[in-house]
């Protein structure tokens, strides 16, 4: 809410402008899957008086890190390791400012299939994802503001279980809403359980009464929390933590919800 009022003050200070074509409100869109980079990109927009007043283009990884905050803390280092002309967050902000200046999702030209452009001075990263996600966000329509503090959250179990896995959960909040959830685990070789299961190395599907591998059931649990937006909205049918609330999941989910609660209580990640 503070950000909204700050934008309103800036708009008043700038003086009257013509009303833009968009409905006022907050907008959001995020990629559906993690790419090879490990960063799932997202865009959050705020529209005031029909005009795009703010743009936040960033990404979240499986640990719940926000790419901009992670980069500003000196942990991404695109200049040092990639010999880029500027850090990623600086180039992202220049791209955001370009969209705010043009107010036009079509006012961008690409010079290659990867989505690079010569339209924005000082920007060498691909920018097509920002424009594609912004278009998707506006098509989705305004979202209601939720109760949670924006940012990434993370919690992990203290020890490896008898199964050899140590569970963890990451959450990401934008506009006060849970927008990304990742539930997995690591083994002593630091392998990710969802990845191992996807690659056929876990083998739950052989014994699964619903014919689903562990990562598929984990995805169903993640989606359920995203739909309810409430870590308390779950009921268990036994003391092992199984539930009938989630279609597509016969695994126990009490550990997941305990980690979600732990992550939320720990607060937004700091760097």
The total beta strand count reads 6
Spatial extent as radius of gyration: 21 Å
Helix content: 25-40%
Tell me about the biggest sheet? Answer: 3 strands, antiparallel
Major beta sheet, strand line-up: 1-2-3
Uncertain runs: none
**What is the CATH domain class of the largest domain?**
Alpha Beta
Strand content: 15-25%
Number of helices, where a helix is a run of at least 4 consecutive DSSP H or I residues: 8
What's this, in brief?
It comes from bioreactor metagenome. The protein is built from eight helices and six strands; from the N terminus they run H-E-E-E-H-H-H-H-E-E-E-H-H-H. With 271 residues, it is α+β, with helices and mostly antiparallel strands.
What would your notes on this structure say?
With 271 residues, the protein is α+β, with helices and mostly antiparallel strands. The model has no long low-confidence stretch (mean pLDDT 94). The two termini are 23 Å apart. It folds into two domains: 2-140, Sufe protein. Chain: A (Alpha-Beta Complex), CATH 3.90.1010.20; 151-266, Sufe protein. Chain: A. It contains eight helices and six strands, in the order αβββααααβββααα. The strands form two sheets. The protein has a three-stranded antiparallel beta sheet. A three-stranded antiparallel beta sheet has the order 4-5-6. This is FMN-binding domain-containing protein.
Task: Reconstruct the topology from this structure.
Blueprint: H1 2-14, E1 25-30, E2 40-48, E3 51-60, H2 67-72, H3 78-82, H4 88-102, H5 128-140, E4 151-156, E5 166-174, E6 177-186, H6 193-198, H7 214-228, H8 254-266
Antiparallel strand pairs: 1-2, 2-3, 4-5, 5-6
Protein name: FMN-binding domain-containing protein
Organism: bioreactor metagenome
